Amino acid sequence: MSGAWSGYGTFVLLTVVLVLVPGPDFAVVVRNTLAGGRRRGAWSAVGITASNVVQGTAAATGLAAVVVRAEPLFQAIRWIGVGYLAYLAVQAFVSAVRGRYADLDGGGAAVGRGALTGLRQGFLSNVTNPKVLAFYLAVLPQFLGPGTAVPVLMAYALTHAAVGLVWLLFLVAVLHRARLLLARRPVRRALDAFTGCALLAFGARLAADRG
Fold it and tell me: 15 lies in a domain?
């Protein structure tokens, strides 16, 4: 059992490097934080983490390998992911064109709806990306040998999810600290346009990647 943990420190370092690289998760959290404030941004990070937990569990129990090898299912998930990222991109573009923004620190029922929206968008944008499953299947074997116990596999997979959550919550906190600048209408319109382009680009890359 001790041998299973010999590469854990290296795995953590690799995970930190990987989560710091901007991707769809980054764009979704930025978009939700700008659209609904700190609470919505934080809940989008929680949604992404919940998705990572689901995918990590699938990888640890062998279900992910079945999904990746079932080409029609893998491709169906991939195209759903492409469509959802495009949908979020269109929302960002529409918001940029309209230029009408609510107070980021608003409360009441809108806050509750915003939290649910963030959670839903974070979860769906990540769970419909089959490349996350492929990541777990490609990386975990580099640190763990065949026959590794499921609890150890789960610990590695959940570590990736936890590190990602810490980074995304830090990102939300930074954006919240800069809310006075971000609340300016021209800035928010520009950021909406930028995140829309980013989401569209990530969707296009997912569509083009047939691996």
Answer: no
